[in-house]
Write a structure and sequence with these properties.
The structure holds two protein chains of two kinds. By secondary structure, chain A is mainly alpha-helical. Helix content of chain A is about 75%, strand content about 0%. In chain B, strand 1 and strand 2 (about 15-25) form a beta hairpin. The chains are: A mainly alpha, B alpha/beta. The interface of A and B includes residues 17, 81, 85, 91 and 252 of A.
Chain lengths: ~260, ~280
C-alpha cells in the first residue's frame, strides 16, 4: 500500500507541469463564457450550455487521457525509468487506470466547477447558476459512459501497443474498425434482403435498450441475434480485451 | 550476485548472444569489453530485466530479472548509454525527488556531494543541460541510489576529460563496497585503474572473465624495441612496441587493458584456452 501510494504521488508530481497547464486552460473556459456574457452582442451562455460543455470536455479528455499522461511510457529510451521503478506491474497499471479514469475527470470538474462558481458568486446578475449543482441534475446516459470507457481503454491499449506514430496508427485502427463494422452491417442487411425476407425484416420491431445484454432466445430473429452478439462484443469482450491486453503489454514489454 | 548459464538471445532471427555463461560477485567493479555488436548492451538489458533471454538462465540477486519484481527493481540501477529519459523539463533534484523513494538506500547527502564533485547545479532543468552535464546528473543519481547491482552502459561517453577523472574518483570513493558494478565500455583508457576484473565478450562466448592479478600472472605486457617471436600482439608506440605475450617466466607487468583487448580479439581461442586451462 505504501509503495502504491508512493507511485501515485510520483505520478502526480511528475505530471505537475502538465496538470497546471491543462487546468489553466480548463479554468479559462468559464472566464471565456463570462466574457461572452459581458459582450455587447447580447449573447448569453446559459447554465445548461455550460454544463453540457463540461460533460463534452470531460468525455473528450477522459478518452484521450492515456495519450496525454502516458505517451512516452513504452518509448525505448524515454520510457524505461517507469519500468525500472521498484513497483509491481499491477501497481503501475492501476495507477495508470486511476489517473485516466478518476483523477482526470475529478480534477477537470473541480477546476471548471470551482471557477464557474466563483464567477457566479462574484457576478450573479451576469453569470447565473452553478454548474457544480447542475451536474447532479444532468441525466447521464449509461450508454454514453460505456462508449467513453470503451474508447478510453482502446486508446490506453494502443498507446502501449504502438511505439512510434501512435496517434496516427490509433486513428487508422479506428477508421478501419468503423469501415469494417459498417461493411458488416450493410452486407448482412443486403444478404437478408436478397434472401427474399425483406418484408419480414421491415416488420421487425426491436429495441436494444429494452433487452438485457445477454438475453438471446431460441425464437429470436437472426438479425436480433447478430445485434445482440455485436452488443456483447462491444460492451463486454472488447473492454475486457483492452483491459487485460494493456496489462499484458505492460508486463511483457521489452526495451 | 549474477549467475548466467548458457544464455542465448536473438533479435528476430539474428543471434546476438549464444550460450554465454559467467558468474559475477558482489563488491567488484567489472569492466565489460567487446567489439561493436558483441551484445554488451543486450547483456546489460537482460541483467536489468529489460529483455528476456531466448534460452538459458539469468539469475540476479536470486531473482529472475524479466519478472521485474519490486524487490528486484529496488536493488538494481541501470544507467543506459543514451539518457533521454532524464532530459526532462525538471531539475536533477526534482528527478531525484520523484525516483529516490523507490530506492530504499538512496542517500541524499551523497547525491548532493557527487553533484558538487561534478560541479553541477542540481536546480537547473535537465533539458537545458548539455548531454555531458545531464549524464553527470544521471551518474550522480545512480551512485547515490546505493543499490546492490549497478549497471553502467558507456558511462564515460559524452564526459569531458576532467569529468572522466572525476567519474573514476567518484566510482572509487562513493560506490558501496558491497555493490557489484558492471561497466560496459569501449573507452578502456577512461576506466583504467578502476575496473577489475575484466570481462571480454564475444557473441559466441565470454572470452575472458579474470581479475587483473590473474591476467598479469598469465600474460606479460612489455615495451620492446623489436617484436618478439612469441608475441601474441604488438603495437607500435613511443620507444618501441607494446607487446603482449604469454608470461612463461613469471614476470611482473602492469596490464594494459587496451592491448589485452586487442590481443584477445586477435587470438580468441588461445586466450580463451590459456585462462580456461589455468
Amino acid at each position: 500500500m505504501n509503495r502504491f501510494w508512493k507511485l501515485i504521488v510520483r505520478n502526480l508530481k511528475s505530471l505537475r507541469k502538465y496538470w497546471v497547464q491543462s487546468l489553466l486552460i480548463v479554468a479559462g473556459f468559464p472566464l471565456l463564457f463570462f466574457m461572452i456574457n459581458l459582450s455587447p452582442i447580447g449573447m448569453e451562455i446559459s447554465l445548461d450550455s455550460r454544463t453540457s460543455f463540461l460533460f463534452t470536455m470531460v468525455t473528450a479528455l477522459v478518452i484521450i487521457s492515456p495519450f496525454m499522461l502516458f505517451f512516452n511510457y513504452n518509448h525505448p529510451k524515454k520510457g524505461f525509468t517507469e519500468v525500472m521503478l521498484g513497483a509491481s506491474v499491477l501497481e503501475k497499471y492501476l495507477v495508470m487506470q486511476l489517473a485516466c479514469l478518476l483523477f482526470t475527470p475529478l480534477v477537470i470538474v473541480t477546476v471548471y466547477g470551482g471557477m464557474d462558481s466563483l464567477l457566479a458568486l462574484l457576478f450573479p446578475a451576469l453569470y447565473k447558476g452553478h454548474v457544480i449543482q447542475q451536474i447532479w441534475q444532468h441525466s447521464v446516459d449509461l450508454k454514453q459512459i460505456t462508449t467513453t470507457l470503451l474508447l478510453q481503454q482502446a486508446i490506453l491499449f494502443f498507446n502501449l501497443l504502438f511505439v512510434r506514430r501512435k496517434v496516427l496508427k490509433t486513428v487508422g485502427v479506428f477508421i478501419l474498425a468503423t469501415i469494417a463494422m459498417t461493411t458488416a452491417v450493410v452486407v448482412t442487411i443486403s444478404l437478408w434482403e436478397a434472401s427474399g425476407s425483406s418484408a419480414e425484416f421491415n416488420n421487425l420491431h426491436f429495441d436494444l435498450n429494452e433487452r438485457a445484454l445477454f438475453a438471446i432466445y431460441a425464437n429470436d430473429h437472426p438479425i436480433v441475434v447478430i445485434l445482440q452478439v455485436a452488443r456483447i462484443i462491444l460492451q463486454v469482450i472488447l473492454p475486457l480485451a483492452f483491459l487485460t491486453g494493456s496489462y499484458f503489454i505492460l508486463k511483457n514489454k521489452r526495451y | 550476485m549474477i549467475q548466467i548459464k548458457d544464455l542465448s538471445f536473438k533479435y528476430g532471427k539474428k543471434e546476438v548472444l549464444n550460450h554465454i555463461s559467467m558468474n559475477l560477485d558482489a563488491g567488484k567493479i567489472y569492466g565489460l569489453l567487446g567489439e561493436n555488436g558483441a551484445g554488451k548492451t543486450t547483456l546489460l538489458k537482460i541483467i536489468a530485466g529489460l529483455q528476456k533471454p531466448y534460452r538459458g538462465d539469468c539469475i540476479v540477486c536470486n531473482e529472475i530479472p524479466f519478472q521485474r519484481r519490486p524487490s528486484f527493481l529496488s536493488r538494481i540501477y541501470y544507467l543506459p548509454e543514451e539518457i533521454d529519459y532524464i532530459q526532462n523539463d525538471y531539475s536533477a533534484f526534482h528527478f531525484a525527488d520523484l525516483n529516490a523513494p523507490f530506492y530504499p538506500n538512496f542517500d541524499w547527502e551523497k547525491f548532493k556531494k557527487v553533484l558538487e564533485e561534478f560541479d553541477l547545479d542540481g536546480t537547473k532543468k535537465l533539458n537545458k543541460l548539455s548531454h555531458g552535464q545531464a549524464k553527470k546528473a544521471a551518474i550522480s543519481f545512480a551512485v547515490a541510489a546505493n543499490v546492490e547491482l549497478l549497471l553502467l552502459d558507456e558511462p564515460s561517453n559524452g564526459l569531458d576529460i576532467p569529468s572522466k577523472t572525476i567519474f573514476r574518483k567518484i566510482m572509487a570513493e562513493y560506490c558501496l563496497e558491497s555493490t557489484c558494478t558492471l561497466i560496459s565500455t569501449h573507452q578502456v583508457r577512461d576506466l583504467e585503474n578502476l575496473i577489475d576484473p575484466i570481462i571480454i565478450l564475444d557473441n559466441r562466448a565470454v572470452l575472458l572473465n579474470e581479475s587483473l592479478e590473474r591476467i598479469s600472472e598469465k600474460l606479460c605486457f612489455t615495451l620492446e624495441s623489436a617484436i618478439p617471436s612469441d608475441a601474441l600482439y604488438a603495437e607500435p608506440t613511443l620507444g618501441g612496441y607494446l607487446c603482449v605475450s604469454r608470461n612463461n617466466n613469471e614476470r611482473e607487468s602492469r596490464v594494459n587493458i587496451e592491448a589485452l583487448f586487442n590481443a584477445t580479439m586477435q587470438h580468441k581461442t588461445s586466450i580463451y584456452e590459456l585462462f580456461k586451462n589455468a
